[in-house]
Write a structure and sequence with these properties.
162 residues; 71% helix; Divergent PAP2 family protein
Length: 162
Amino acid sequence: MNKGIITALISIAFAQGLKIPLHFLKKKEWKPELFFQTGGMPSSHSAGVASLTTFIALKRGIRTIDFALSFIFGLIVMYDAQGIRRQTGELTLKVNSLDELVRKAHEKETVEFEEKKPKRLKEMLGHQPQEVVGGALLGSLLGSIAFLFSKKDRQKKRFSVK
């Protein structure tokens, strides 16, 4: 199996799992469903791309095309996570609050109106800049650890008798 892919997937899962205890420490509320939601600290997007980029840098070097591709696509993912997706989340907050405003206005009218209850839009879509940085630091650490483990695996194979 591709160790770079495994490293990135483990980093994503680890970052998602870390959101639960961090949320508990901050809000005193246990929410295991955060594992399956976007947004929050740390950014699993950033952790995934940073771990892959770090793993490639240590394994293949920073002058390789592998590193260049991973680095540039990682920057795009992190920019998108804290830029466009965050703005979408903030817009969603406003749309969801409009629902309450419309309901209040509706209560004062005498015209009969059949309201269909839409699903609330997800408000946690993007990341604050510190969440992206936190995910990138976590990913870099996990990418380095994965590299060290893969290095030990190579040394064991080299010295084992067949």
